[in-house]
Design brief:
It is built from 20 helices and 25 strands. By secondary structure, the protein is of the alpha/beta class. The protein has four domains: 61 residues, no CATH class; 183 residues, Alpha-D-Glucose-1,6-Bisphosphate, subunit A, domain 3 (Alpha-D-Glucose-1,6-Bisphosphate, Chain A, domain 3, 3-Layer(aba) Sandwich); 247 residues, Alpha-D-Glucose-1,6-Bisphosphate, Chain A, domain 3 (3-Layer(aba) Sandwich), CATH 3.40.120.10; 130 residues, Alpha-D-phosphohexomutase, C-terminal domain (TATA-Binding Protein, 2-Layer Sandwich), CATH 3.30.310.50. The strands form six sheets. A seven-stranded mixed beta sheet has the order 1-2-6-5-3-4-7, sandwiched between helices.
Length: 637
């Protein structure tokens, strides 16, 4: 019996939809027979020999899909893994997409960048004694291959020189596309995902990621790819279609971030800032911006080297994860610092920890960062008489509504109902640019003040169209500096915001569901809650349920499969002051639960103790609701 026949027989016994198994077998047959897949065959035959049936099905049942952050997932073998074929087919499809989007335009141009990753099979999914074409593959290797595909298709490429030691962060790519008037871009990055992951973030001519229906059009073109045109890297280097990025573009990006300053610069060592890029590229963006602004960031030595294995990071290279800041906080305590700043591997997200004035550090959540930066920037612009004519604040459906209360207090218009993913914030800016309005909000990009999402993403200038940790780090450092000048802390600043606008408890829970089995369970969970939503959660009545996949709802008919996937969100309102959202992650194998509980904005406690007790009660209810909902959601999983 051939390896394919063995797999076909085994797949028949797996309890998955027949269409999924048939699609997986069709891809598997190609990879076992076509010459272009010959390098993968030893590992593939070994997986079959080892009877890794669920894992094989997961590798082959689909092409790595578009999620909230592009195509991202484990490096490995098969169309549902990141490898040269997956990337090559995606890039070939992107070439076809650019030809359709810009008919007759010559030359088409793209900007290509890459992060620090290197695949070493830390999960031990493959046989180390057999040839493995993805082993040791770096993001740089992937982007050089992508350059060969673009140039073979006649598209000009802007890319870093091969011998340079610098990297470009995700927001710098967004800026470079706009600065160079390119027609699109690609960043090889898996952002804050585990070390064995990688991916490709595709960008449009505005410097944002495509949204429906454009991402669906591109995905369909990728599915139609039969042959990948490519040139080897030595031929790319000799091509007239390659342009090496100049330092002037980087300088323009740094200058743009510097111009987002809203406070006088610090005096020598006026504020002690600890900085870590978590082994990513943030030292080449956020740290440089801080230095240019007059701060003297103190590095966390063992985390400064760009290293895609993230050897000195606890748990995850993700500033959303409190443990990732442990070494930085240790340095901060040793140096008696005021502020800790961290960026994720591609330097689009930031994390922060603030001295509380009592020798300890308080780690801010993504929602808390969104709150303090929104309030601080609006306050400073108001005080300086620099507020735009029609100020606009943009955020997502699952970000704390405290941002909305603050923005409206300062007279800003608010967009707060967006799907998860910063590309939707970029799309609002695009609509303002094109039409002068978005839904009931009127203005231009010049009216944009700040955009943010709860996942530690912030944008403070419309001249980029993706979240940017560098300018956000500067804003957070300036907030800490202004508070220190008043002999206060950012923790006290946040407490004052809560006292004025209401106390909000936000809780994020992750429900891990890996592989094709996990995905099937996730979809079953969503369908069960969609068809039979709970009447109450934690003793609170569910007063409203919104299914964002309802084509009769506010989002209307689907614009394609990518739109349907991104709208797989359920919203549960529990009275006036509590809400829960549930959605599958678009970048990681898990479902996310967002819980928010707040008090009424008119509540005015009689004493400090009454305030403290009231906040603790809200925290208790928030945690209880999260526990109860996770238990309810996973009861049949």
């Amino acid at each position: 019996m051939s390896p394919f026949e063995q797999a076909a027989a085994a797949f028949r016994d797996l309890s998955f939809d027949d269409n999924i198994k048939e699609k997986a077998l069709a891809y598997l047959k190609d990879w076992l027979t076509k010459p272009e897949f010959a390098p993968y065959r030893p590992q593939l035959e070994w997986l079959i020999q080892e009877k890794q049936w669920p894992g094989l099905l997961d590798r082959f049942y689909q092409v790595l899909p578009f999620g909230t952050g592009g195509r991202r997932g484990p490096v490995g073998i098969g169309p549902n893994r990141m490898n040269q074929w997956t990337l090559g087919a995606s890039v070939q499809g992107h070439c076809e997409y650019l030809r359709e989007r810009f008919p007759g335009v010559e030359p088409l141009q793209v900007v290509l960048t890459f992060d620090v990753r290197r695949f070493e099979d830390l999960g031990r999914n493959y046989n180390p004694s057999l040839p493995n074409p993805v082993l040791h593959q770096t993001s740089k290797d992937f982007v050089h291959y992508a350059a060969g595909v673009y140039i073979a298709n006649g598209i000009h490429v802007h890319i870093l020189p091969p011998d340079i030691k610098r990297f470009l962060a995700t927001p710098e790519l967004s800026f470079a596309i706009r600065e160079l008037k390119a027609h699109g871009g690609l960043n090889i990055s898996a952002s804050h995902n585990p070390p064995d992951d990688n991916g490709g973030k595709f960008y449009d001519e505005r410097g944002g990621q495509p949204v429906p229906p454009d991402d669906q059009i591109m995905s369909d073109l990728v599915d139609l790819v039969q042959n990948i045109k490519s040139l080897p890297w030595p031929d790319v280097m000799r091509s007239s279609k390659i342009r090496f990025l100049q330092d002037s573009t980087h300088r323009a990006y740094i200058d743009l971030c510097r111009r987002q300053s809203v406070a006088p610069p610090p005096k020598f060592d006026e504020l002690k800032v600890i900085f870590t890029p978590l082994h990513g590229v943030g030292s080449m963006t956020a740290m440089e911006v801080l230095e240019q602004a007059g701060f003297r960031p103190i590095p966390v030595p063992e985390q400064m080297e760009p290293n895609g294995l993230f050897p000195n990071v606890t748990k995850s290279p993700n500033p959303e994860v409190p443990e990732s800041l442990d070494r930085a906080i240790a340095v901060a305590k040793e140096r008696q610092a005021d502020l800790v700043l961290a960026t994720d591997p591609d330097a689009d997200r930031l994390g922060g920890a603030m001295a509380d004035g009592r020798g300890s550090f308080r780690i801010l959540t993504g929602n808390e960062i969104a709150v303090v930066l929104t309030h601080f920037k609006l306050q400073r612009l108001t005080a300086q008489g620099m507020m735009p004519a029609s100020p606009i604040v943009i955020t997502t459906e699952v970000t704390t509504r405290l941002v909305t209360r603050i923005a409206r207090h300062f007279g800003a218009q608010v967009v707060n109902n967006l799907l998860v993913g910063f590309k939707h914030i970029a799309e609002v800016l695009g609509q303002l640019e094109q039409n002068g309005s978005y839904e009931d909000v009127s203005g231009t990009p010049a009216d944009f003040v700040i955009g943010m999402e709860e996942a530690h993403g912030v944008l403070v200038t419309p001249q980029m169209r993706d979240k940017d940790a560098a300018s956000a780090c500067l804003l957070l450092a300036e907030l800490a500096l202004e508070q220190k000048r008043q002999r206060r802390t950012v923790v006290q600043y946040l407490d004052d915001i809560h006292r004025q606008f209401g106390y909000f408890h936000n809780d994020l829970r992750n429900i891990g569901m890996t592989g094709i089995e996990g995905r099937a369970k996730m979809m079953a969970m969503m369908q069960r809650l969609r068809s039979n939503p709970p009447k109450s959660i934690g003793g609170l009545a569910v007063t409203e349920v919104q299914d964002l996949q309802d084509e009769n709802g506010r989002l209307g008919p689907f614009k394609g499969a990518t739109d349907s996937a991104s709208r797989n969100v359920l919203l549960f309102q529990l009275g006036e002051n509590s809400r829960i959202a549930l959605r599958p992650s678009g970048t990681e194998p898990k479902a996310k639960v967002y819980v928010e509980v707040c008090n009424h904005s008119a509540w005015r406690p009689a004493s400090h103790q009454e305030w403290k007790d009231g906040c603790q009660e809200i925290d208790k209810w928030g945690k209880l609701l999260a526990d109860k909902f996770v238990k309810l959601a996973t009861s049949d999983v």
